[in-house]
């Protein structure tokens, strides 16, 4: 029933804004010659892939999932907003952007500018390739009403950005259009304002299609928490209040009986995870009831996003350019609510936080198709460039994602099977219970998935290790490297002793944690320059046992830091001066460290 109500809400809301397009109003599009494809990229904020949020978005299902390809194993590299978004727009891992937080000194828009990216990132490259570029919604954290013009974000034909301190205030947003002064939209629903601006930019783009194709990014804040930031008086700093998301009034009544999925790792009887998570108390019934409410508010806030997607595609149809346009849907990072006893939030390396939606619809893309090839946010900029026929950059840390069905099936046998994950700094919670502000939530990790194994391996800055065999422990409840586990020596993974598997995983992570460009794209070749190892399964061959078991240098931190400080990072691949020409298969690790 709610599906029908949501769809009717889309029609009535569009009509009330006067956004319906009569066919006579649609600008004509030239039929002369082949068209270069356009792109509409919808980027949500904090949307999970693990907690069923897409199940409650019927228009995304109808317009994108059933008409496109879903990538089930898509991962963000860092489970927090600004570092993740900088990775999206540069194709580089956070340790190579050095934008690792949401605010200075380690992150935010000022750090993005200081690192030199405002003159050399994705929209700049698109404009150099004669694309019109448009953006509305959230760009980066710490992009504010004070610094929006110092400098303006580079590379946009048209822009209308949400600005702090009101970025996450659903009913009191502030936007800044092109080179105009910021404008308050108090009392208007933020996602609806983004929708209206997106439709306007789409119209602008279509009117100039005879000259240039376009790339339009639409970045609403749903389903992010509602955040109220207040500057305190008398020099006492500021207060930041993370409340549950606020839905549009027309969606407030939906999903009354829906609860957070009760998975094995939801508020477990025994603590799970590692490091500081092991100290989290079990949530009481009042806490759980609130978190269920928080979850419902997330789903409700996504209904306006659902309508936005439908409105964009309806207009592409009316303009006659839907078949020439790629539509890509994703989110900056995932979200947890109650898993491992955690309050609502992100910042962890577990599946709920790092696995995010990725759906692609467009020319040559298979309909109603899903794939489990492993992809990450480092791959999106290369993917967009390849789809648009723009040369790739040598310094990309990621590779283009195949989006055509036949290419996907071929790639399933050859594409890398891992995603690199890293985080520095503070773990925070959202909502009203057990507010968390934990420093030194710093770790390196690998998420690795294939037909033969399904693993998560991490090293924390206190040098605590984690390993989960997710083929039998999907919720990451049982750390196989827990020092108190006296049976770890008896555990087998893919039929092999755990120590043998860990030696390979640690070597791979040792390369990935400081890789650059080619060494990120093909880390196994840094370890095996002969090119005869492409996967963990290849590396597990017994002929390499002496190489890995003689290893003297493992991943470790010298100390915990809240940002990317080289002195804290321990031994590093690039700084050791190690490169493929100096390695040979069969050499022991201590010969070259």
From TrEMBL:
InterPro entries: Alkaline_phosphatase_core_sf, Arylsulfatase, Sulfatase_CS, Sulfatase_N. It is an enzyme of class 3 (hydrolase). One of its GO terms (molecular function) is arylsulfatase activity. Its EC number is 3.1.6.1. Residues 1-22 form the signal peptide. Keywords: Glycoprotein, Hydrolase, Signal. This is Arylsulfatase. The keyword Translocase does not apply. It comes from Xylaria hypoxylon. It catalyses: an aryl sulfate + H2O = a phenol + sulfate + H(+). One of its GO terms (biological process) is phenol-containing compound metabolic process. Residues 37-390 form the Sulfatase N-terminal domain. It holds the Pfam family Sulfatase. PANTHER family: N-ACETYLGLUCOSAMINE-6-SULFATASE FAMILY MEMBER, SD21168P. Coiled coil: none annotated. Belongs to the sulfatase family. It comes from the Eukaryota. The conversion to 3-oxoalanine (also known as C-formylglycine, FGly), of a serine or cysteine residue in prokaryotes and of a cysteine residue in eukaryotes, is critical for catalytic activity.
């Amino acid at each position: 029933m709610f599906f029908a109500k949501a769809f009717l809400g889309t029609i009535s809301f569009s009509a009330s804004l006067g956004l319906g397009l009569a066919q006579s109003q649609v600008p004509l599009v030239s039929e002369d010659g082949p068209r270069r494809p356009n792109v509409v990229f919808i980027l949500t904020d904090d949307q999970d892939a693990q907690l069923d949020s897409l199940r409650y978005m019927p228009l995304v299902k109808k317009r994108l999932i059933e008409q496109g390809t879903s990538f089930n194993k898509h991962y963000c590299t860092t489970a927090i907003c600004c570092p993740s978004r900088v990775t999206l727009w540069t194709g580089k891992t956070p340790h190579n952007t050095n934008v690792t937080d949401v605010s200075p000194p380690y992150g935010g828009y000022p750090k993005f500018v200081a690192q030199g990216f405002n003159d050399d990132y994705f929209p700049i490259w698109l404009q150099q390739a004669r694309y019109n570029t448009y953006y509305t919604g959230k760009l980066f954290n710490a992009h504010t009403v004070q610094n929006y013009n110092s400098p303006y974000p580079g590379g946009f034909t048209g822009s209308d950005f949400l600005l702090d301190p009101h970025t996450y205030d659903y009913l009191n947003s502030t936007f800044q259009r092109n080179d105009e002064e910021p404008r308050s939209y108090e009392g208007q629903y933020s996602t609806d304002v983004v929708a209206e601006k997106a439709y306007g930019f789409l119209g602008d783009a279509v009117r100039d299609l005879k000259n240039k194709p376009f790339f339009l990014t639409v970045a609403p804040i749903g389903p992010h928490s509602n955040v109220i930031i207040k500057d305190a008086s008398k020099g006492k700093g500021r207060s930041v209040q993370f409340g549950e998301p606020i839905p549009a009034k027309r969606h407030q009544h939906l999903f009354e009986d829906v609860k957070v999925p009760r998975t094995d790792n939801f508020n477990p009887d025994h603590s799970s995870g590692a490091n500081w998570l092991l100290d989290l108390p079990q949530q009481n019934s009042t806490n759980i009831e609130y978190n269920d409410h928080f979850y419902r508010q997330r789903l409700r806030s996504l209904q306006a996003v659902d309508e936005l997607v439908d409105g964009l595609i309806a207009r592409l149809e009316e303009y006659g350019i839907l078949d020439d346009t790629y539509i890509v849907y994703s989110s900056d990072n995932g979200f947890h609510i109650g898993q491992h006893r955690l309050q609502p939030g992100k910042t962890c390396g577990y599946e709920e936080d790092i696995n995010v939606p990725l759906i692609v619809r467009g020319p040559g893309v298979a309909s109603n198709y899903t794939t489990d090839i492993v992809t990450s946010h480092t791959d999106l900029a290369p993917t967009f460039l390849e789809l648009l026929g723009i040369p790739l950059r040598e310094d990309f840390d990621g590779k283009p994602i195949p989006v055509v069905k036949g290419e996907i099936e071929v790639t399933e046998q050859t594409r890398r099977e891992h995603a690199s994950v890293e985080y520095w700094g503070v773990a925070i919670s959202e909502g009203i219970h057990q507010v968390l502000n934990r420093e030194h939530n710093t770790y390196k990790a690998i998420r690795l998935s294939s037909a033969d194994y399904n693993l998560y391996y991490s090293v924390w800055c206190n040098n605590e290790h984690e390993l989960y065999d997710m083929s039998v422990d999907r919720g990451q409840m049982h750390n196989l490297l827990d020092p108190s586990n006296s049976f770890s020596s008896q555990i087998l993974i893919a039929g092999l002793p755990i120590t043998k598997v860990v030696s390979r995983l640690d070597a791979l992570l040792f390369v990935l944690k400081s890789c650059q460009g080619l060494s990120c794209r093909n880390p196994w070749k840094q370890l095996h320059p002969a090119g005869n190892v492409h996967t963990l399964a290849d590396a597990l061959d017994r002929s390499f046992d002496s190489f890995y078991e003689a290893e003297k240098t493992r991943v470790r931190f010298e100390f915990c830091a809240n940002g990317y400080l080289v002195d804290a990072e321990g031994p590093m691949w690039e700084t050791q001066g190690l490169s493929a020409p100096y390695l040979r298969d069969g050499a022991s690790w201590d010969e070259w460290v």
